[in-house]
Amino acid sequence: MHTQNQSIIVSGGSRGLGLHLVSRLLEAGNKVATFARSHTAAMDDLSAKYGDAFYFTPLDAVDAPGVTAFVMEVSDRFGGLDSVVNNAAIGQDQLLMHTDVETIQRITNINIVGPTLLTRAAIKHMMLSGGGNICNISSICGSRGYAGLSVYAGSKGYLDAMMRALAREVGEAGIFINNVAPGFFESEMSSVLRPEQLDTIKRRTPSGSLSNDENIFKVVDLVISGTTNMQGQVVFVDGGITS
Ligand SMILES: NC(=O)c1ccc[n+]([C@@H]2O[C@H](COP(=O)([O-])OP(=O)(O)OC[C@H]3O[C@@H](n4cnc5c(N)ncnc54)[C@H](OP(=O)(O)O)[C@@H]3O)[C@@H](O)[C@H]2O)c1
């Protein structure tokens, strides 16, 4: 483990990759806070196991005052804020011509406005305290094309571009910002892929296998550890499919 004794926010920790990141960071002795729209049983299990080192509250990533208050609350409870992982997002499985306006607005709101609000609130705290680490969970879709994912891909491309600009804005304040871009991995979001689509992706992947939560965690752990001097980069965790 590279990340230890930190105060960390992971958005969307109620299930999937976010839950794995939260659990592994807690195991390593960090204090971890997360939010999602729904309260899952896993949140009660983590509260019972880790007590005050864990904090969950139901919150929508696009609720601007709520996100600002959450960051303040976490900083007060944990005595500061060292790292943020922007993980919460929603997917898409529809050709653009069949995608209604409400869906386009929902994806862009949650996947673009959401992480931007959390990052904005976090960097204010980090600037005052001398630095920190931000890691956005992007996707290979942000830089490679996949039919049926155009709006989602656009939202991940935004995260990559925003991250590079922000690295230049906040680098001097000791804030490191980088993105981790996974290939497809098993979760509720990717459950829309049919088995034959997953087989095709595996066949085209040089490593022969999809990434899993733990592969992605290992890279996130390094990125937010504050030990690398890595700044403004997108790191792909995809078995080489984008190589
Ligand atoms: N799965 C893949 O193949 C894949 C590939 C590349 C990148 N990614 C990226 O990896 C990250 C995690 O994906 P996943 O597959 O683990 O997704 P997931 O299983 O669908 O989990 C998404 C998490 O985000 C939360 N969330 C969604 N909308 C939210 C909102 N408006 N406010 C607060 N929380 C919200 C969800 O909780 P609620 O619904 O209860 O709010 C849930 O906790 C995402 O950024 C995704 O884009 C996934």
From TrEMBL:
Keyword Aminoacyl-tRNA synthetase: no
EC number per UniProt: 1.1.1.100
Enzyme class: oxidoreductase
Molecular-function GO term, any one: 3-oxoacyl-[acyl-carrier-protein] reductase (NADPH) activity
Domain of life: Bacteria
Cross-referenced Pfam families: adh_short
GO biological process: fatty acid elongation
CDD domains, A to Z: SDR_c (cd05233)
The entry's keywords: Oxidoreductase
Family: Belongs to the short-chain dehydrogenases/reductases (SDR) family.
Protein name: 3-oxoacyl-[acyl-carrier-protein] reductase FabG
